[in-house]
Amino acid sequence: MTILYLHGLESKLSPSKRSVLERFGTVVAPDLDYHKNPNVFDLLLKLNKEHKFDVAIGSSMGGFMAYYFANTVNRPALLFNPALPHRPVTQNIPAINTLNTASTLHFALGGQDDIIKANDNLKWLSKNRLPNTAIKISIHNQMGHQIPLAIFENEANEFFRQLDLLK
């Protein structure tokens, strides 16, 4: 399995979280500059031609990009506090009504996130729900915007377990 991991605006994939994901497959985690490159989405599509990603995983701004990527190339995605309702940088992405649908979207939201509030994501999802997409939402009441390793690991385990059940 080839996993696309998309980091947040001012972050990178930590070695401990990479280690969690490597139990499930090969991890490709490009270093993205969302501020300077408004065409990150096009870069992801080019990377997909090279790597043929099976799943996308992203956090914050990376969750935003993973949402659009997954729905464009019809792949499952695990999204941690995705910046769907609002984001601080502009990215050129496809319009919602032109998207395909991902088979599965798994959201992990922080109940204490003061950057991207869980309720804002829930409202956004209720207005922009794509048909034929299975959605799982986990709200971690004590989690903020940063994803503790234990929650990251539990969500990854559950996401990949669900994918195995769908095969």
Gyration radius from CA atoms, angstroms: 14 Å
Task: Tell me the strand order in the biggest sheet.
Answer: 2-1-3-4-5-6
How many structural units, i.e. domains?
A: 1
* Low-pLDDT residue intervals, each spanning 5 or more residues: none
- SSE-based structural type: alpha/beta
User: Which architecture per CATH?
Assistant: 3-Layer(aba) Sandwich
Beta-strand proportion: 15-25%
Please, what is the average pLDDT? 93
What does this molecule look like?
There is one protein chain. This protein has 167 residues and is of the alpha/beta class. It has one domain (2-166): Alpha/Beta hydrolase fold, catalytic domain (Rossmann fold). 37% of the residues lie in helices and 19% in strands. The chain is built from 5 helices and 6 strands. Helix 1 runs parallel beside helix 5 and helix 2 (40-51) crosses helix 3. The two termini are 13 Å apart.
Question: What is shown here, in short?
Answer:
The chain contains five helices and six strands, in the order βαβαβαββαβα. By secondary structure, the chain is an alpha/beta fold.
Write a concise keyword list for the protein shown above:
Rossmann fold; UPF0227/Esterase_YqiA; 5 helices; 167 residues; 6-stranded parallel sheet
